[in-house]
């Protein structure tokens, strides 16, 4: 964070904002904090004591000395808590326990179709989280938050899926409440494309403010990072590029019906499901997105041609998105991205040809680096940024200070109504 960047939430240069500076600095001294914030040394010391009392900041020894006693370097204590993260996919799931720096401490994958419904899937996830925690000797009360991704649209404020097409039984289901009897922590839910975008942005592109993450699997979606933050739109539907209509490449072809009820959607023409169907029509054995990739890697000409053509169709929509958003990077992930050369070649061909030169001057189009792990890392990142936001840190510190002054906080509103005992 540059000097003068006042965080948008929390007290200006309160303890939460101070923690942000320390996290961004990667080795910061009290003098650095004083010169960045303009605060008095005594105020800085007070803020640091509050952060240290919460275990969020530690001293990591002296920096290189210019003579005299070396100043202590301050670092974020990534071990101050743990996060539970789940990427619940259409057919399989990946779960992880991470520290507050996003480092995976324990991880597990399993076959768990989302279509079994919320109770069986979330019971399973709850059970596996317990097993992961016990496996590394950690307790439930060390958990600071839970981040979950699901393969469908989500109302982010409530964590409830909204009309998810491939998630029968999940519409409106209160996912966060399912975990509230065991953990007294925030639970955030988002769709899988947004968490993949977050994971990729955090891991590789954190210095880039404007990024699009395109997931090309059975369906097609896009996570939009602008100004360094994921953009969900008014109703959580931003980036749903799979249902943008694209002009038919072959004028004589029949209009293709999409699962959404419209015709000619990008997903219905260029998604992994659509490609598998077209390969089957040509007599090949392709039951889904992953077999399209296998056939492409084996050099099957029909599959190679189809993936390249899909790349061009996706490129049509991305070319328009590039003109709209002017991203610096487009990251391509999802199952079909394993056929990366053919898919990327098709996308690049159209985007660089069709977008405005100014918008593509610095544009890079790259494959996902995290691949299968982008979602679970992103689910953890979503939660880490939430619990370490300046406002959340200030509130946690204010709550603790108040409870030290007033004694134990009331357990429930009902107890609060009782007269205080002398
Ligand atoms: Zn559609």
How would you characterize the overall build of this protein?
The protein has helices at residues 15-25, 30-37, 41-53, 118-135, 175-178, 192-204, 266-270, 272-281, 289-297, 301-325, 340-354, 357-360, 374-387, 390-406, 413-417; strands at residues 57-62, 72-76, 82-88, 92-99, 104-111, 143-150, 154-155, 160-161, 187-191, 211-216, 220-226, 229-230, 329-333, 364-367. The chain is an alpha/beta fold and 422 residues long. The strands form 4 sheets. A 5-stranded mixed β-sheet has the order 5-4-3-6-9, sandwiched between helices. Strand 3 and strand 4 form a beta hairpin. The protein is globular, with a radius of gyration of 24 Å. The N and C termini lie far apart (49 Å). Mean pLDDT is 88; it is low at 1-8 and 407-422. Zinc ion (ZN) binds next to helix 7.
Radius of gyration from the CA trace?
24 Å
Round the mean pLDDT to the nearest integer and report it: 88
**Share of β-strand residues:** 15-25%
Ligand roster: zinc ion
Instruction: Encode the helix/strand succession as letters.
Output: HHHEEEEEHEEEHEHEEEHHHHEHHEHHH
Instruction: State the distance separating the first and last CA atoms.
Output: 49 Å
Given as residue ranges, the uncertain stretches (5+ residues, pLDDT < 50) are: 1-8, 407-422
Q: Sheet with the most strands? A: 5 strands, mixed
Helical/strand content category = alpha/beta
Q: Strands of the biggest beta sheet: in what spatial order?
A: 5-4-3-6-9
């Amino acid at each position: 964070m540059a000097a003068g960047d006042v965080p948008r939430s929390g007290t200006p240069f309160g303890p939460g904002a101070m923690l942000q500076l320390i996290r961004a600095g990667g080795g910061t001294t009290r003098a650095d904090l004083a010169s960045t914030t303009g605060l008095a040394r005594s105020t800085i010391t007070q803020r640091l004591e509050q952060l240290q009392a919460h275990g969020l900041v530690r001293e990591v020894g002296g920096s290189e000395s210019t003579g005299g006693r070396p100043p202590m370097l301050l670092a974020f204590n990534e071990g101050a808590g743990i996060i539970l993260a789940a990427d619940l996919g259409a057919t399989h799931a990946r779960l992880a326990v991470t520290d507050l720096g996003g480092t995976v401490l324990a991880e597990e994958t399993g076959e768990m179709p989302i279509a079994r419904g919320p109770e069986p899937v979330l019971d399973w996830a709850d059970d596996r989280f317990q097993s992961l925690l016990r496996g590394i000797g950690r307790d439930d009360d060390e958990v600071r938050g839970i981040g979950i991704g699901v393969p469908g649209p989500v109302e982010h404020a409530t964590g409830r899926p909204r009309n998810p097409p491939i998630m029968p039984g999940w519409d409106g289901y209160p996912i966060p409440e399912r975990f509230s009897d065991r953990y007294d922590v925030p639970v955030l839910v988002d769709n899988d494309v947004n968490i993949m975008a977050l994971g990729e942005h955090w891991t590789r592109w954190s210095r880039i403010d404007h990024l699009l993450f395109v997931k090309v699997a059975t369906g097609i979606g896009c996570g939009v990072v602008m100004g360094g933050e994921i953009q969900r739109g008014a109703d959580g539907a931003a980036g749903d590029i799979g249902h943008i209509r694209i002009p038919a490449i072959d004028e004589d072809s029949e209009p293709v019906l999409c699962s959404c009820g419209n015709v000619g959607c990008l997903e219905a023409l260029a998604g992994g499901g659509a490609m598998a169907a077209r390969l089957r029509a040509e007599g090949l054995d392709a039951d889904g997105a992953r077999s399209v990739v296998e056939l492409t890697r084996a050099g099957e000409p029909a599959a190679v041609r189809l993936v390249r053509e899909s790349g061009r169709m996706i490129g049509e929509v991305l070319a328009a998105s590039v003109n709209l958003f002017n991203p610096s990077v487009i990251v391509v992930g999802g199952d079909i991205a394993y056929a990366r050369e053919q898919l990327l070649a098709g996308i690049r061909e159209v985007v660089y040809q069709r977008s405005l030169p100014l918008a593509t001057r610095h544009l890079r189009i790259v494959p996902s680096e995290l691949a299968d792990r982008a979602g679970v890392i992103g689910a953890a990142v979503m939660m880490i940024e939430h619990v370490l936001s300046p406002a959340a840190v200030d509130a946690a510190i204010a709550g603790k200070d108040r409870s030290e002054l007033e004694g134990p906080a009331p357990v429930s509103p009902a107890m609060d109504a009782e007269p205080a005992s002398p």
